[in-house]
């Protein structure tokens, strides 16, 4: 993206950044974001990225309270602190509640939860600081939410048309998010399953403007590979598995399937095919780091090497001292060793776990930072990282704890969960830190100050997450499994328990590993798929992410990528009148204008929908504490009612049309978007035909074939 190469605040400027008012507001927002996202993640199985909502809230608070001379770097510091709690919550809620599922805990232990959060969060932050220059400066990964957050901050700083555009987009995204999530006026997802050829096939999409905007920001190429992975998992592997092994419902009469249920279809994906995505991500992650090994080694060696004191670094290039960062990582590993010894009571297991974590945590922090750079933090499969972590951890504990120390099954499950929880938390925070540092890089923040703000945010999140989980568990129960264990099977109370799908899945994996069977066949299948993708020269991580993510999330991302391609191609056509060859200088400028406008509108849509998700969590918690008082928005006005599939789809298309219309206003004032769209689609079809056409082979002439 041209125009984003130079920081908004130049390196030679020295303006207010990490001030007292920033720290106070950041701590308050960080605590609220941690609590809201913890509940939302346990309720629906995913968290919303808090960077953009935090940036918007920061601007509203700082400017609304009439603070004098509020700077863009102050806003950036607030959003950095506030968003840290969200990502920390994701790592904790996917792992710690699994201890309830396994029956190891009967309630959330505040101290243990705090230690897991603070040790994992700080370790992930430290490792990510060491990788900042590599991923953000040298590799220049897109980090869509980091770019979107930069647009929000710059629009607020510039005011004028840019601020008006982001406010309009924010309002539109908020209206859509409130209607679909809070009022439940329309369906949030359209999906169906049909039977054919002795199996079943799925089609569906989540009606999300936020995911559509992510697709626009990452572009068609990355979006298409994510979509390819989704098709491979949902449309190819699940039907094949169902054809061979059948589907869970087993409703067959005289050899004919009598009922087609999408939940049974997704059950095959959850219990079987998703593990192929995990295997592909593990191989893809290893290959990604291996292919970048020289760059990583060179980058770390340059970072750790003491800078010549006679050479003055730019303000925008000064990280926290890398030698101090690595020393602090060593201290954290020692503290983790002591924590493991306290948790397991085994000196050997604690030592093995700490050494294992020191290596694996860096690996997954790097992989998580890379994935967040491709698809964003909201859609980064943290739970997939956690499962991959579990597979490695289970192997370690099985060898050290089972074969060497002869530990019982319960102790091995405890060791596995505590090791995996810290690694997962480290990976979860890494993606968020990278997004924030990308934003800071583009707005001209001082890296060491922003990294300090991130550390403060991690500490706040670690202090808040334990009490929040404890209150939620006492009020509603976290996971139905834990509820049934306390209340008894069939208890009506457990119908309202927080679902916590990742925790249930992780608990099942650990239980199966030490008391049953692990789905190694699918993990191996995913590894084979990854090797094939590598041999074909395809971006294995993007496809692996698509296999792990459900198809209905990949579809709107793909749609956003297609819209981006059509609009950018239309901008070029109106200048060059062709899509062949290198675009002219004028065409590049037109493309930049359209891209920047679309990113700005997409940022507003992401912020609006995300904010409504966080606000809705507040209403849900209030309704749980004061039931039957009409607190839930869906109960207001006597309940609005939910539109059917067709009208829900048309409602969504209307907002998609608004996105296209607003972004297209930056197009040059000649040409028609409709005719441009037809040209671009025809050109794409022609390029696909040529790509799959077998070339003619011209044999050299001989005396036998001259005629």
Quick recap of the structure?
This protein has 707 residues and is mainly alpha-helical.
Which helices and strands appear, and what pairs or packs with what?
Blueprint: H1 20-44, H2 51-64, H3 72-93, H4 98-101, H5 110-138, H6 144-158, H7 160-182, E1 189-196, E2 199-206, H8 209-218, H9 220-245, E3 252-253, E4 256-257, H10 262-291, H11 293-304, H12 322-344, H13 347-375, H14 382-404, H15 409-443, H16 447-476, H17 480-487, H18 501-515, H19 520-535, H20 540-548, H21 551-576, H22 585-625, H23 645-664, H24 673-691
Antiparallel strand pairs: 1-2, 3-4
Question: What do you see in this structure?
Answer:
- The structure is a single chain.
- The protein is mainly alpha-helical and 707 residues long.
- The chain has one domain.
- The chain is built from 24 helices and 4 strands.
- The strands form 2 sheets. Strands 1-2 form a two-stranded antiparallel ribbon. A two-stranded antiparallel sheet has the order 3-4.
- The radius of gyration is 26 Å and the shape is globular.
- The termini are far apart.
- Residues 251-259 and 306-310 have low confidence and may be disordered.
Summarize this structure as a short list of keywords or feature phrases:
24 helices, 707 residues, single chain, globular, two-stranded antiparallel ribbon, mainly alpha, two-stranded antiparallel sheet
- In which range does the helix fraction lie? over 70%
Strand order, main sheet: write it out: 1-2
The secondary-structure element order is HHHHHHHEEHHEEHHHHHHHHHHHHHHH
Low-confidence stretches: 251-259, 306-310
Integer average pLDDT: 80
Structural class: mainly alpha
Let me know the largest β-sheet.
2 strands, antiparallel
Strand content: under 5%
Distance linking N and C termini: 56 Å
Domains, number: 1
Determine the number of helices (DSSP H or I, runs of at least 4 residues): 24
Rg, alpha carbons: 26 Å
- Bulk shape: globular
What is the strand tally? Answer: 4
């Amino acid at each position: 993206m041209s125009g984003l190469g130079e920081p908004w605040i130049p390196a030679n400027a020295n303006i207010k950044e990490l001030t007292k008012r920033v720290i106070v507001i950041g701590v308050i927002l960080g605590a609220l974001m941690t609590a809201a996202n913890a509940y939302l993640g346990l309720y629906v199985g995913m968290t919303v990225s808090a960077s953009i909502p935090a940036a918007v809230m920061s601007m509203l608070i700082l400017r609304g309270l009439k603070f004098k001379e509020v700077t863009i770097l102050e806003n950036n510091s607030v959003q950095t602190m506030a968003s840290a709690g969200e990502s920390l919550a994701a790592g904790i809620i996917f792992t710690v509640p699994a201890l309830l599922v396994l029956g190891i805990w009967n309630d959330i232990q505040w101290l243990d939860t705090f230690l897991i959060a603070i040790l994992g969060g700080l370790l992930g932050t430290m490792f990510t600081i060491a990788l900042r220059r590599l991923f953000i400066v040298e590799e220049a990964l897109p980090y869509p939410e980091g770019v979107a957050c930069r647009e929000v901050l710059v629009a607020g700083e510039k005011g004028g048309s840019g601020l008006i555009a982001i406010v309009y987009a924010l309002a539109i995204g908020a209206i859509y998010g409130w209607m679909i999530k809070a009022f439940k006026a329309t369906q949030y997802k359209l999906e169906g399953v049909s039977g054919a050829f002795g199996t079943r096939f799925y089609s569906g999409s989540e009606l999300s403007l936020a995911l559509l905007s992510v697709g626009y920001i990452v572009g068609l190429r990355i979006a298409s590979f994510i979509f390819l992975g989704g098709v491979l998992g949902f449309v190819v592997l699940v039907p094949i598995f169902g054809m061979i092994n059948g589907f869970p419902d087993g409703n067959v009469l005289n050899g004919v399937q009598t009922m087609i249920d999408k939940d049974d279809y997704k059950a095959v994906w959850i219990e079987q095919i998703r593990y192929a995505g995990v295997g592909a991500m593990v191989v893809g992650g290893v290959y990604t780091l291996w292919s970048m090994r020289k760059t990583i080694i060179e980058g770390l060696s340059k970072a750790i090497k003491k800078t010549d004191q006679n050479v003055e670094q730019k303000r925008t290039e000064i990280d926290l001292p890398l030698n101090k960062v690595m020393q602090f990582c060593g201290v954290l590993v020692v503290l983790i060793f002591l924590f493991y010894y306290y948790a397991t009571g085994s000196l050997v297991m604690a030592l093995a776990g700490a050494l294992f974590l020191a290596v694996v945590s860096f690996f997954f922090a790097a992989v998580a930072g890379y994935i967040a750079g491709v698809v964003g933090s909201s859609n980064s499969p943290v739970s997939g990282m956690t499962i991959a972590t579990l597979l490695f951890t289970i192997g370690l504990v099985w060898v050290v704890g089972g074969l060497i120390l002869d530990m019982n099954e319960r102790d091995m499950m405890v060791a596995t969960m505590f090791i995996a929880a810290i690694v997962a938390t480290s990976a979860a925070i890494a993606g968020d830190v990278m997004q924030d540092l990308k934003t800071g890089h583009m707005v001209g923040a001082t890296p060491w100050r922003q990294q300090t703000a991130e550390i403060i945010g991690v500490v706040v999140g670690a202090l808040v997450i334990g009490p929040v989980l404890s209150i939620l568990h006492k009020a509603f129960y976290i996971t139905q499994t834990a509820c049934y264990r306390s209340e008894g099977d069939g208890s009506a109370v457990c119908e309202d328990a927080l679902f916590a799908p990742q925790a249930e899945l992780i608990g099942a994996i650990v239980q199966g590993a030490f008391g049953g069977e692990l789905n190694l066949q699918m993990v191996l299948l995913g590894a084979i798929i990854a090797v094939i993708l590598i041999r074909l020269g395809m971006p294995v991580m993007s496809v692996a992410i698509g296999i792990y993510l459900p198809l209905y999330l990949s579809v709107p991302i793909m749609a956003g990528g297609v819209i981006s391609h059509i609009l950018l191609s239309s901008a070029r056509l109106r200048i060059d009148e062709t899509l062949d060859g290198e675009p002219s200088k004028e065409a590049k400028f037109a493309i930049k204008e359209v891209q920047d406008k679309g990113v700005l509108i997409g940022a507003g849509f992401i912020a609006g929908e995300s904010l409504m998700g966080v606000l809705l969590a507040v209403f849900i918690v209030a309704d749980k504490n004061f039931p039957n008082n009409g607190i839930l928005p869906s109960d207001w006005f006597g309940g609005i009612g939910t539109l059917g599939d067709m009208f829900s789809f048309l409602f969504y298309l209307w907002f998609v049309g608004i996105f296209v219309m607003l972004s297209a206003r930056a197009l040059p004032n000649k040409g028609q978007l409709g005719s441009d769209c037809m040209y671009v689609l025809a050109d794409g079809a022609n390029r696909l035909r040529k790509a799959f056409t077998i070339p003619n082979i011209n044999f050299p002439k001989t005396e036998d074939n001259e005629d």
